[in-house]
């Protein structure tokens, strides 16, 4: 293991000139922080995604102006903006051209090319901020090392290629200077730009840390750590000072936006601790995600994942038959769908689709082709607008009274589906989306306050 720390700053931490400077302060307080991974400035990715959907001219120009405004507000406060003005102008021109192309015909590959510009611009600006503070920092195009497959919008990294390319291309630069690079984006074998799915910069940081054998990943965001639930939903949520990999991974998977769901995969694989803190208030401390924690509690946290779709498949043929589930799963696999939660009865199966790491391209998982194929086998019922609430904890399936404690307080709510027992780390259930925040607040009050 090297003494390298990889620091990642999210959108709000590079939102404007002041935020970038606060993030630069954070970088400079720890001399082992030599690789910095950045998101796009807050708001930019959403604007680029809108452009990629193909907009008519007026709408398009409004979005282009908004992007230019955010980036020029930062540029114009540099002592010497002209050093990178041309480069930023060139990227803005690219965006204009690509957005025009998208208004004629859009594609997932075009979307990824377009949205990648957010991270390209924020990293250029940040390098200049550091240079003006007398720090030697190199800008590095992460696409040189972040090799992925060509599943645009939600590409998967090629870990072996990444490791090899990092050793060849990135490690030697880190010997010389601090390196600033982009989160979220990558490139496939033919060199076309890909993205790792929305919020993917956390994942980039963890992947690079693994490839470079780093000693820690620091995720700097707008909250000073991981809380017992989203503090936006429950202001009384408490910070968790130390949490085990498995628990944090469950939280991320089940919707705690503070970490991209895949962030902890490389960290767990290579036992790299992950710290989460606030770039606005670094002194407030944060959460350390590590291998083991002292006295893990029965109830750790609540997570909420919105916009869940429940698919129920009914067939009398299922009764006493064999291989029905295999057939259903075969169809789902052919359509590249991974199942998330599942419950079965004698004649029906209810399942939710895995939306982990939503795509940058906004593709729907439930296509007409999939529904047609499933309908040839059984009656298909689709319910939208649900939310998944997950209670994360330890040894949950071995403890007594968990069901009563959880569902006792949820009496006024309709619980649409429950999954319990497969994992000792979680108990999950679906509720109507409109009631999900109330459910989380009520449960948090009873279990954590
Ligand atoms: P960034 O842009 O830095 O990646 P995100 O918006 O993706 O930041 O993630 C930070 C947000 O995650 C917080 O503002 C908070 O609302 C949300 N969040 C959800 N669940 C949790 C949790 N359990 N603990 C802390 N923050 C959470
Ligand atoms: N900028 C990308 C997004 O908004 C990636 C990230 O912020 O992690 O999804
Ligand atoms: Mg994020």
Automatic annotation (TrEMBL):
GO BP terms in the entry: homoserine biosynthetic process; lysine biosynthetic process via diaminopimelate; threonine biosynthetic process
Q: What is the lineage of its organism?
A: Bacteria, Pseudomonadati, Pseudomonadota, Gammaproteobacteria, Enterobacterales
Classification via CDD domains: AAK_AKiii-LysC-EC (cd04258), ACT_AKiii-LysC-EC_2 (cd04917)
Q: Which GO terms describe its cellular component?
A: cytosol
Name of this chain's protein: Aspartokinase
Where does the chain bind ATP? 8-11, 221-222, 227, 232, 257-258
Which segments constitute the ACT domain?
313-394
Q: Carries keyword ATP-binding?
A: yes
């Amino acid at each position: 293991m090297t003494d390298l720390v990889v620091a990642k700053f999210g959108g709000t931490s590079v939102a404007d000139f002041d935020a970038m400077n606060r993030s630069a302060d954070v970088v400079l307080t720890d001399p082992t922080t030599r690789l910095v991974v950045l998101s796009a400035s807050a708001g930019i990715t959403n604007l680029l995604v809108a452009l990629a959907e193909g907009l008519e001219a007026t709408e398009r120009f409004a979005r282009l102006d908004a992007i230019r405004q955010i980036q020029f507000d930062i540029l114009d406060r540099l002592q010497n903006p002209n050093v990178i003005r041309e480069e930023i102008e060139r990227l803005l021109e690219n965006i204009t051209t690509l957005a025009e192309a998208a208004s004629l015909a859009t594609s997932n590959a075009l979307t990824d090319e377009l949205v990648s510009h957010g991270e390209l611009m924020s990293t250029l600006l940040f390098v200049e901020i550091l240079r003006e503070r007398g720090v030697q920092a190199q800008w590095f195009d992460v696409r040189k090392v972040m090799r992925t497959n060509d599943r645009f919008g939600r590409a998967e990294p090629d870990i072996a290629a990444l490791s090899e390319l990092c050793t060849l291309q990135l490690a030697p630069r880190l010997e010389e200077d601090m390196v600033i690079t982009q989160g979220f984006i990558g490139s496939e074998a033919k060199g076309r730009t890909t993205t790792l799915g929305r919020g993917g910069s956390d994942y980039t940081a963890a992947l690079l840390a693994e490839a470079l054998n780093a000693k820690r990943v620091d995720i700097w965001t707008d909250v000073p750590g991981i809380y017992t639930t989203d503090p936006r939903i429950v202001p009384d949520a408490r910070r968790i000072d130390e949490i085990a990999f498995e628990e944090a991974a469950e939280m991320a998977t089940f919707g705690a936006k503070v970490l991209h769901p895949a962030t902890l995969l490389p960290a767990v694989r290579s036992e790299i601790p992950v710290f989460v803190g606030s770039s606005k208030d670094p002194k407030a401390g944060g959460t350390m995600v590590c291998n083991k924690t002292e006295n893990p509690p029965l109830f750790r946290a609540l997570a909420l994942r919105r916009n869940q779709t429940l698919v129920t498949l009914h067939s009398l043929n299922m009764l006493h038959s064999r291989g029905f589930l295999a057939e259903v799963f075969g169809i789902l696999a052919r359509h590249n769908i991974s199942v998330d939660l599942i419950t079965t009865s004698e004649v029906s199966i209810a399942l939710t689709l895995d939306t982990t790491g939503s795509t940058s391209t906004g593709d729907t998982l439930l296509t007409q082709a999939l529904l047609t194929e499933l309908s040839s086998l059984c009656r298909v019922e689709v319910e939208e607008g649900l939310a998944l609430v997950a209670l994360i904890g330890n040894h949950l399936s071995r403890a007594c009274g968990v069901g009563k404690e959880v569902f006792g307080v949820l009496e006024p709510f309709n619980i649409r589906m429950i999954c319990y027992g497969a994992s000792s780390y979680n108990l999950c259930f679906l509720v109507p989306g409109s009631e999900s925040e109330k459910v989380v607040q009520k449960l948090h009050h009873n279990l954590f306050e």
